[in-house]
Amino acid sequence: MNFIILILIPIAVGLYAQMRVKSAYSKNAQIQSRGRITGREAAEAVMRSAGIHNVEIVQCAGTLTDHYDPSNKRLALSRDNYHGTSLAALGVAAHEAGHAIQDKEAYAPLNLRMALVPITNFSSQLLPIVMFGGFFFNLGTSLIYLGIFIYLVLTIFQLVTLPVEFDASVRAKRQLVGLGIVESDEIKGVNETLDAAAFTYVAAFISSLGWLLYFLLQRR
Question: Considering 41, 44, 96, 186, which one is annotated as catalytic?
Fold first, then answer.
């Protein structure tokens, strides 16, 4: 029963979140903004309004692979969002620009997330040991405590990620309307896209927390 509640239900929530974001993005990628401003231009305008002139905007491969790299001051947009003029493209581009603004303002949750990246990456590399070890050899005491450590780190990282992502979306929506990039009646499409994307981070947190609680209950 614990496995169903703590593991399978969060997995179902995660799958739903992925389906939701793909659906919302696909829908609003078909709706062109009236201003016909590209995602690259939107990101540039949002950052310029915040006095940011040292961030490089580049195109990256893949779909929904958009991200902001604080270490290299680089904002990467997938091809459809870099060149696209849809409401989805503008929303995603402005969201990433929101992270650049957070970086400029030394937004505390973003700084904390960046500080957690090394130990989070290390913990993720250890995850196969716990998963395969537990599957083939059952969960011994050492694997249980290793699992607790890994998922404690991942849960904290996902928790810190939530305000970072939600804040970036709030900044994006405000700037898109404030700068006249989208009109007030167009923001609905942006909201749908960014809200669906935000839910994926909530799902990731729920999943990590579920695994953490599961391992805690395995202690003898």
Answer: 96
- Residue 87 CB coordination number (10 Å): 26
pTM for the full predicted model: 0.91
Which residue from 42, 37, 71 is spatially nearest to 54, judged by alpha carbons? 71
Q: What is the pLDDT of residues 63-93, one digit of tens each?
A: 999 999 999 999 999 999 999 999 999 999 9
Is 56 among the catalytic positions?
no
Sign of CA dihedral 81, 83, 88, 94: positive
Which of these, 146, 148, 196, 138, lies nearest to 169 by C-alpha position?
196
Rounded Cα–Cα distance for residues 50 and 184 (Å): 21
Read out DSSP for 35-57?
T---HHHHHHHHHHHTT--S-EE
